[in-house]
Backbone:
């Protein structure tokens, strides 16, 4: 158990402890940006009686798929059957 602790657990802890600190910092920054974005209402200013909101659009590199074909399923149209259609169906048989 002592050897496992020294060669396994402590080594993993040494390797990952810096990375988990980085992740926590990134998450803290993300949370702060989200809070700031909620307070950001207008780019050019707004009157006191105006209710505004602001959204940003970010352009990124193209996201490529994994090569699998995407199949879009068509939803079947609902048949409109009223009394007349029901009556006609009796004569079409």
Residues:
């Amino acid at each position: 158990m002592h050897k496992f602790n020294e060669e396994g657990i402590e080594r993993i802890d040494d390797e990952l402890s810096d990375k988990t600190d980085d992740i926590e910092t990134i998450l803290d920054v993300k949370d702060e940006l989200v809070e700031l974005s909620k307070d950001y209402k207008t780019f050019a200013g707004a009157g006191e009686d105006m209710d505004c909101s602001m959204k940003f659009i970010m352009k990124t590199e193209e996201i490529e798929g994994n090569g699998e074909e995407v199949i879009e399923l068509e939803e079947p149209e609902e048949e409109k059957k009223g009394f007349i259609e029901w009556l006609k169906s009796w004569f079409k048989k």
User: Anything to note?
Assistant: The mean pLDDT is 76.
